Every structure is written in C-alpha cells, then in structure tokens.
Amino acid sequence: ILSSVNAMVRAAAATATGANGSSGGEWRVQFASFRNIADAIATWQHLKERAGDALDGVEPVVAPADLGARGLYHRLQAGPIDGGDAARALCARVQQAIPGQDCLAVRVRTP
C-alpha cells in the first residue's frame, strides 16, 4: 500500500509543479476528500472493485489540499483526462456503475 500512496502523491505533485508539460492544465474526476491518505487508498480500491471497467484508462491521484485552520486533506482523484467533457463522461460512467457515488470534474491548473 505504501508504494501506491507514494505513486499517487508523486502524480499529484508532478501536476502541481507543471511536470506534465501541459500549459492549460489537465482534468481529473474527484471522488472524495479525506483527512487520512490510507482512507483515500482504501476508497480507490473500493471504487475500482465496484465500478468495473468505468475507471479503465485513468490512474488514482491523491492531491494534498491545505485548508488552513481546517487542516490538511487528501483529495482522491482519477486522471489524467483529456478535457472537461471527457471528465464529466467518466463521472457519469462511474455514477451509472455505482449509483449515488459522488464525483466532480475538476480542472487542475498548472503554473
């Protein structure tokens, strides 16, 4: 699990620093936000089991979000996704596979 956590955090850091080479940013689908990275990893594994092939072609990303006085949260996202329409379509596929699953298409802006 630790190697999975490290890979997800590295992916988030690479995007945040612009290492993906994209000047306009990339898109992802965000599923949840957690105080604890382990909960994000467990939720990703649960989503993959329940969503079937709806998550094929994307990788998990745990993006840190410092909310000041509220503390550090870890946003569970999937990506990269090529454009907002594709991100919204992925969200719809996941929601069809897992009724009631929250998700949101988010654009990740790079500096």
How many distinct helices?
A: 3
Measured by DSSP, the beta-strand proportion falls in: 25-35%
What is the N-to-C order of secondary-structure elements (H for helix, E for strand)? HEHEEHE
For the secondary structure, the number of strands is 4
Give the overall silhouette. Answer: globular
Low-confidence stretches: 9-23
Structural class: alpha+beta
Largest sheet: 4 strands, antiparallel
Ends apart, CA distance between termini: 30 Å
How is this structure best summarized?
With 111 residues, the chain is α+β, with helices and mostly antiparallel strands. The protein has helices at 2-16, 37-51, 84-97; strands spanning 26-34, 59-66, 72-81, 104-108. A four-stranded antiparallel β-sheet has the order 2-3-1-4.
Please render the helix and strand layout as text.
Layout lengths: L1 H15 L9 E9 L2 H15 L7 E8 L5 E10 L2 H14 L6 E5 L3
Antiparallel strand pairs: 1-3, 1-4, 2-3
Structure in words:
The protein is built from 3 helices and 4 strands. The chain is an alpha+beta fold and 111 residues long. The protein has a 4-stranded antiparallel sheet. A hairpin with a 5-residue loop joins strand 2 and strand 3. The longest helix is centred in the first third of the chain and has 15 residues, at 2-16. The protein is globular and about 35 Å long. The relative contact order is 0.26. The model is unreliable at 9-23 (pLDDT under 50).
